[in-house]
């Protein structure tokens, strides 16, 4: 019998996570094909008693493991922390808000049984907010351009992976993990399956603009040098344009004897070019800064405690295996 590991990052989910766990139990408790465990990762949720709730669930349900991070590292780092304590043959990642029906995981697992390494859910009718849908589209576009994601492949936060892929992901030492980039780098045996999606019943999404920008930056820089190549191309085009325009001014002066005019246009061009240069320097600085953080072995996450049953298994510092999400 194969074992499933459900990994759920928890943030401000005191009112929803028990319902998610109960749904998983209802969907798989009587399933004679799989045994399962549920790993709940508290990403230092600050506004409610998420930690207390997942500890309660771990005490009352022997199949639940509660992982407590020492600070807020972000969703991708929380997922990596959860993967590090899983023991399953298949790993299912899902959200803590109850929008992902647990029974839909069976469709994802069927694809893994067919031989695929990763199966992403694909929503026929998304119930996210317009802002989150926009963020998902930008992430999808970025993954296609920078990570060579196949155009037909749709990525989402509800997916299942074979143990092989998770083991490859856990070898990554980058201080800024980007889950989709790690998956796309590990295998090309990835598919989609249509699944249901429900409206959010409690609270509001934690997907803020700042978190969105952090995710984009991790994917933008951590897995590709194409931004630097793009900067070089832009710089070359601007230099060529400047040379041709200078040549035009000289020829115009020699042939027609017209004085050089246009102080306003000159200042506009200078400000524009200076702005482009500063953006490129900032991008280069971001690469160098992240290289420095990685060289310092900054952890992706730090696990303070792992709870199974009534007692914590103890403090586990995973600084040697992964990297942090907040130094820049």
Account of the protein in words:
The radius of gyration is 24 Å and the shape is elongated. It is built from ten helices and nine strands. The protein starts with a strand and ends in a 12-residue tail after the last strand. It is an alpha/beta fold and 328 residues long. A nine-stranded mixed sheet has the order 7-5-6-4-1-2-3-8-9, with helices on both faces. It has helices at 17-28, 50-60, 75-84, 105-113, 130-147, 163-170, 179-186, 209-222, 226-256, 263-295; strands at residues 2-10, 34-42, 64-69, 90-93, 118-123, 159-162, 190-195, 303-308, 311-316. Helix content is 47%, strand content 17%.
What is the fold's blueprint, element by element?
Elements: E1 2-10, H1 17-28, E2 34-42, H2 50-60, E3 64-69, H3 75-84, E4 90-93, H4 105-113, E5 118-123, H5 130-147, E6 159-162, H6 163-170, H7 179-186, E7 190-195, H8 209-222, H9 226-256, H10 263-295, E8 303-308, E9 311-316
Parallel strand pairs: 1-2, 1-4, 2-3, 5-7
Antiparallel strand pairs: 3-8, 4-6, 5-6, 8-9
Biggest sheet details: 9 strands, mixed
Q: What best-fitting shape do the alpha-carbon axes yield?
A: elongated
Given helix and strand content, the structural type is: alpha/beta
- Give the strand tally: 9
Taking strands numbered 1, 2, ... along the chain, how are they ordered across the largest sheet? 7-5-6-4-1-2-3-8-9
- Terminal residue distance: 45 Å
- Unreliable stretches covering 5 or more consecutive residues: 312-328
What is the number of helical segments per DSSP (H or I, 4+ residues)?
Answer: 10
The helix/strand series, from N terminus to C terminus, equals EHEHEHEHEHEHHEHHHEE
User: If you compute it from the alpha carbons, what radius of gyration comes out, rounded to the nearest whole angstrom?
Assistant: 24 Å
Q: In what range is the share of β-strand residues?
A: 15-25%
What is the average per-residue confidence, as pLDDT, rounded to a whole number? 80
Percent of residues in helices comes to: 40-55%
